[in-house]
Amino acid sequence: MRIKKAVVPAAGFGTRVLPATKSMPKEMFPVVDKPTIQYIIEEAVNSGIEEILIIISRGKEIITNHFDKSPELENFLYKNNKLNLLDDIKNISERCDIFFCRQREARGLGHAVLYAKSFIGNEPFAVLYGDDLIVSDIPVCKQLIDAFNKYQLGVLGAKEMPKDEIHKYGSLKVEHMEKNFFKCTDMVEKPGLSEVMSLYSILGRCILTPDIFDVLEATPPGVGGEVQLTDAMKQLARSNGMIMVDFDGKRYDMGNKLEIIKASVEIALNHPEIGSDFKNYLKQLNLSSG
Ligand code: UTP
Fold first, then answer.
1. Which of 42, 101, 220, 284 is the most exposed place for a label (fewest CB within 10 A)?
2. H/E element, 134
3. Would you state the torsion angle of the CA atoms of residues 175, 181, 187, 188, taken in this order, to the nearest 10 degrees?
């Protein structure tokens, strides 16, 4: 079955970047000239996704506004012959159908994904975490969809994390299959030292089969009192196995201060309009700081 639906959970508090997130969702933090979530929606659309459900929460309506039509602005740009800008603001919303729903309480990523149950129905779907920006030649969501098409099992996008940081993430039990594909048969969220199964951790992208919803409904709150998506995926990994893709791409956690800056710097350096000026600026900074 072709994967054409995606869910983008974007309802968390973003406490690691307070006070910025008090009234501005981290998913809307701009990276050069686009909000984070637009990069993510573009990744989904460039992977063949046609319908997207974004899960928001109270105070995050600015995300809805960003993907809405803006007749006054569009009119203004048209009248002033700024047609490139007009294309920029219209483009993404016209290439897919975007829907919204509100998670009434931030009870965890698993709880947020459960809101997509009736939107998804009985088909496999992609999940793209709203605060994980991934830069790659082939969209990571597409890399995962290709793996799903090949193996017909749920797919996890993952990377190896530094040993001294794995306790902050999840750890996957994996066995190498071929190329960058691994079979995953177990996982643990925020592992203690003795629980680490590998340094591979899920980073922001997965393909799930609809049986995840029944499992999520029966999943009690886990680490941090939140319904953890990994606790539900663990059931699927243990029963049917899942595929782990060591994806090709660079991921930035937009809920982490240092990573927000890294994303801006690295994307700015490659930006067609400002890249070379920004490079010169950095060189100048280096000289003046000795
Ligand atoms: P995170 O755990 O990184 O987001 O979830 P958070 O809860 O906002 O983070 P901190 O710890 O408070 O800084 C990954 C993605 O899942 C969404 C977040 O918005 C983020 O895009 N999420 C998280 C939800 O939609 N609902 C939740 O209850 C929790």
1. 220
2. strand 132-135
3. 110
255 lines ligand 1 (CB under 6 A): yes
The finding on whether 205 has its CB within 6 A of some atom of ligand 1 is no
> Which residue, chain included where needed, has tokens 């996008």?
157
Q: What is residue 290's predicted lDDT score, i.e. its pLDDT?
A: 52
Q: pTM of the predicted model, to two decimals?
A: 0.94
Identity of the amino acid at 289: S
Dihedral angle sign, alpha carbons of residues 213, 218, 223, 225: positive
Residue of 106, 128, 122, 117 lying closest to 7 (CA atoms): 128
Q: Find the largest Cα–Cα distance for the chain.
A: 64
Express each pLDDT in 3-22 by its tens digit.
Answer: 999 999 999 999 999 999 99
Which pLDDT score is estimated for 185?
97
Instruction: Please state, in angstroms and rounded to a whole number, the distance separating the CA atoms of residues 261 and 264.
Output: 5
What are the residue ranges spanned by the domains of the chain?
Answer: 5-261
Tell which atom from ligand 1 comes closest to the C-alpha of 255.
13
Instruction: Give the number of residues written for the chain.
Output: 290
Helix (H) or strand (E) holding 30: strand 30-31
Cα torsion for 234, 153, 199, 158, to the nearest 10°? -120
What are the residues facing 158 on neighbouring strands? 202, 246
Q: Which two tokens stand for residue 285?
A: 């900074």
3-state secondary structure of 115: coil
**Domain 5-261: homologous superfamily in CATH:** Spore Coat Polysaccharide Biosynthesis Protein SpsA; Chain A (3.90.550.10)
